[in-house]
């Protein structure tokens, strides 16, 4: 009788989807400071309408970034206590190296204090004027490090990825035909490497298919160009492949991730994302000469090759996090909880980049506030409104972050105007997300009252971090 009941329960479970619960228990909590609308309006004004200037204690729900904001597990905290802080040859480094090498299959594993440090080292070696680095989509620090070296960062996103409303499984893909045309146009000798960002952060957290990785690899191999992965969110990308790509449904996420890395000649990673830690990263390489030059720069800028700007406890936490992130119950919860936010707000008309990504929901600022032109930064206006209304901190990914000026100082807008709501890993519960949904819907209903912004001061690079704004 019991077996019959179990069979019936399993049959019934196929008929409906239960609530996706957090696959963890909360062991430690941090209080949230509550503020009023009036207080937040003054805070935002004093912060020059830039969310990066707002003190974290004045934020109710912080969706500025998913980088370095994860809640670590009991096992990671235990690893911190066990961290070997020896200057050279620490035990913690060798555990870190073993885990990263097992995952990536790459020969040289070089720790750095975060992903942009790995980028700085790499592009300092290969970057110079007349050099081009293609990618599906470069994110902010990658692009900045390439351009700082004198090289040119070029995005070759697939056509599907440029349409925010289109529902497609792998909108993060690179346009392979355009890549080959790009190589022929600029010359193989001027392209030291090609990058793929997994998942595609600038393009809405959209995944890249295994077929696309293979196809890009084949083009790179044809022209003897190394393929590198920006692997910040490799596990989320691997789980999307398992869910959406034919032939991978029965494969483990780890096996899928290992196959992804098998096509790469190198990788950079900010461990602050899918390694579930608050600080750390690595540069992984197969090329011996490039690795030697990278380690030389590492010693000058980061530290000895077996710690690279990190404490031994950080290396332990990263190693543990890279194992935990491959848990498919966690990844199911991660992707489903993000989609929950997107589905709830889009169901009442809020325009988002479709389909929901793995780590964030991206509001389509062009449709959200169509009365505000790109040069008046509609995304920045939405960011400010969400903070004042509900204490939610988000970030603009559009004309503030990626806009340029032509020779006459005229604004050049990027393809997409977005507002990113990046969800920290293992930090917020569903009730927090329900609150975010309520605030967004309230803001959207009053969207016609939003006013454009103007920049009153900006730095020469990465202006979104420190630019100052006024309301027009």
How does this model look, in words?
- The chain is α/β, with parallel strands linked by helices.
- Helix 2 packs across helix 15 and helix 4 packs parallel to helix 12.
- The protein folds into 2 domains: 194 residues, Aspartate Aminotransferase, domain 1 (Alpha-Beta Complex), CATH 3.90.1150; 251 residues, 3-Layer(aba) Sandwich (Aspartate Aminotransferase, domain 2).
- The chain starts with a helix and ends with a strand.
- The radius of gyration is 22 Å and the shape is globular.
- Helix 8 links the parallel strand 5 and strand 6.
- The strands form 6 sheets. The chain has a 5-stranded mixed β-sheet with strand order 2-8-7-6-5, with helices on both faces.
- 42% of the residues lie in helices and 13% in strands.
Give the structure's gist in a few sentences.
By secondary structure, the chain is an alpha/beta fold. Helix content is 42%, strand content 13%.
